[in-house]
Amino acid sequence: MKKSFFIVVIKLFLITLTVSANQTTELNNRAFNAVKIKADNGDASGQFALGRMYFHGMLIKKDYAKAAQMYEKAAAQGHVKAMYNLAMLYLNGDGVKKDADKAVYYFTKAADKGDIKSSVHIGDIYYFGKSLQVDYDKAFKAYKKAADLGYPIAQHKIGLMYKMGNGVEADIIKAKKYLEQSAMQSCSKAQYDLAKIYLEGDGIEKDMQLAKKLMQEAYLNGKKEAKIILDKHKWNIEQ
Questions:
Q1: Scanning 14, 103, 153, 190, which has its CA 20 to 30 A from the CA of 164?
Q2: What is the pLDDT of residue 92?
Q3: Binning pLDDT at 50, 70 and 90, where does residue 26 land?
Q4: How many C-beta neighbours within 10 Å does residue 38 have?
């Protein structure tokens, strides 16, 4: 079943907001039963949709444990989003016992099927030591997988790892390369960190004009810390 199936369920839910209480109950039951029948028949998309309904408390009482059960069934059939959502449940301990190893397991299965966000989560788990020992090598490999697919958040993280030499030999040129790729996609953190490199001349020639431009872009894209640098150098914010 295609992802439009869950959209249909949402539309039915929205319809219930405009009808009477009795009609609302009937429509809710019809929508929930439609999803449950598909889930009970082993349809992976139906299981995933039912898991989301339990997780968000949509048409049914919120129940993280049942959400996990549905996600697990869908994940066993190769449903990528179910793998990702199940990994998040294990990472946060929602409806299941918190288990970073299982989170990595399901994130890895999703990442192997092309889910970029899962690769970033694996990187974060190992980089920050989220319930597992810090492992910069594993973090670097996970981030790079997403970075090489063009994901700006991962490109920023790889840029910083090259800059600081975490999990890889420090290389300011490679750091600049990845930060530039991320900054070009309007990642405010990358714009800010790249601006600081040009501002400080950290391994490359200083470029105050480029530093100013990047710092302005970083601030306009939501990096509040950039305002401190802008004010320090008395740089106006140009829209």
A1: 103
A2: 95
A3: confident
A4: 18
- Asked if residue 44 lies in contact with residue 78, where contact means CB atoms within 8 angstroms, the answer is yes
Residue with tokens 């009795």: 22
CA gap 28, 50 in Å, rounded: 13
Side chain identity at residue 84, one-letter code: Y
Alpha helices, DSSP H, located in 41-115? 44-56, 64-76, 80-92, 100-112
- Give pLDDT tens digits for 162-176: 999 999 999 999 999
- Cβ–Cβ under 8 Å, residues 137 and 155: no
pTM of the full predicted structure? 0.84
Q: CA geometry: angle at 186 spanning 108 and 165, to 5°?
A: 55
What pLDDT digit, counting tens, does each position of 61-81 carry? 999 999 999 999 999 999 999
SS3 (DSSP) at 189: helix
**Is the CB of residue 16 less than 8 Å from the CB of residue 24?**
yes
